[in-house]
Specification:
Layout: E1 4-13, E2 16-26, E3 31-35, H1 42-49, E4 57-62, E5 65-66, H2 71-75, E6 78-81, H3 93-103, H4 108-121, H5 137-149, E7 155-159, H6 167-182, E8 186-190, H7 194-200, E9 203-208, E10 211-216, H8 218-225, E11 229-235, H9 241-248, E12 252-256, E13 259-264, H10 267-281, E14 285-291, H11 295-304
Parallel strand pairs: 3-8, 3-9, 6-7, 7-8
Antiparallel strand pairs: 1-2, 1-4, 4-5, 9-10, 11-13, 11-14, 12-13
Helix pairs in contact: 3-4, 3-5, 8-11, 9-10
Length: about 300
């Protein structure tokens, strides 16, 4: 049984098809990323999976439970942090958590116990008596995650969890996501930070114009979708593009002063061409190295395709 399952989800708004028969499954304890450009269908998909929107076709399941046939049972298993959300501004951190615990029907003893644990894990203990409106954006985001976790959900949905956060706050959120997954919580997140997704997600689905265009482990997607490598060379003096064009011919390249980057499938051929260029031009090549494309570059290539 999967923790989250989308089966041929379809949603139309008027003449616009937002999600076009999207299917994927998320394993228990997995960190799964749903990536795509603005308007790709990410948020609509999340809203169908969490029961906010009813699909025009297809099914959404949480731990095998159909979200729209048994909404209360399914929603009791999930925690959700939307992109546009705020805690109650005039309540303290502790009071926000207490209120959510009461809404879930938890006993006072369970609420107190879980609040103590969450304040410690999310580094909010010192701020427990502060009103939410006085918190930094990073602290508010951690409070929202704590509010989503107080019911001890089996599945946590995070929509752009690190959007607009500083480096330190974003790292704390990423560390929290990893620790939750290790504890057995399934995390499904959306993000515009592609490299971040590549670093913390076990698998990702890339959605564009309502369709899944790629699905798999980020490293596997790099191998499957890109045969190209990047060759980076440094010279002792600024390069002249008109001279390089003659030697690099069919290759896509970029010159930045003394630096040269070339996209290629066969680095050996590029090196031979550069050696010919060095002999004729009198410049010296100081260093040369090759690298795989970043996950962001793979993402852009898939979306453009």
């Amino acid at each position: 049984m999967y923790a989250v399952e989308a089966v041929n989800l379809y949603k139309r708004f008027g003449d616009i098809v937002a999600v076009d028969h999207v299917s994927f499954a998320v394993k228990k304890g997995e960190v799964f990323g749903l990536l795509g450009p603005n308007g790709a269908g990410k948020t609509t998909t999340i809203r169908m999976l969490t029961g906010v929107l009813k699909p025009d076709d297809g099914t959404a399941k949480i731990m095998g439970i159909d979200v729209h046939e048994e909404p209360i049972k399914a929603k009791s298993l999930i925690g959700v942090v939307p992109e546009e959300a705020n805690p109650y501004p005039d309540l303290t951190v502790r009071d926000n958590l207490t209120l959510v615990g009461m809404l879930y029907g938890l006993t006072q003893g369970d609420i107190e116990e879980r609040i103590r644990g969450l304040l410690k894990v999310l580094d909010l203990y010192k701020a427990r008596s502060r009103k939410a409106r006085t918190l930094s954006k990073g602290m508010r985001q951690r409070l929202l995650i704590a509010m989503a976790l107080i019911s001890e959900p089996q599945v946590l949905f995070l929509d752009e969890p690190t959007s607009g956060l500083d480096v330190i706050s974003a790292r704390k959120i990423r560390d929290l996501i990893r620790s939750l997954a290790k504890a057995g919580v399934t995390v499904l997140l959306t993000t515009h930070n592609i490299e971040e997704a590549g670093a913390i997600c076990d698998r990702v689905a890339i959605i564009n114009k309502g369709h899944i265009v790629a699905l798999g482990n980020p490293d596997e997607l790099k191998i499957k979708t890109s045969k190209h490598m990047y060759l980076l060379a440094l010279f002792n003096k600024p390069l002249k593009e008109e001279e390089l064009a003659h030697y690099l011919g069919p290759y896509e390249y970029r010159v930045n002063g003394r630096k040269l980057s070339v996209i290629c499938e066969d680095p050996g051929d590029v090196v031979e061409r550069l050696l010919s260029y060095v002999k004729s031009s009198g410049v010296k090549m100081i260093s040369i190295q090759t690298s795989q494309p970043s996950f962001e570059e793979v993402f852009l290539r898939l979306v453009r395709r």
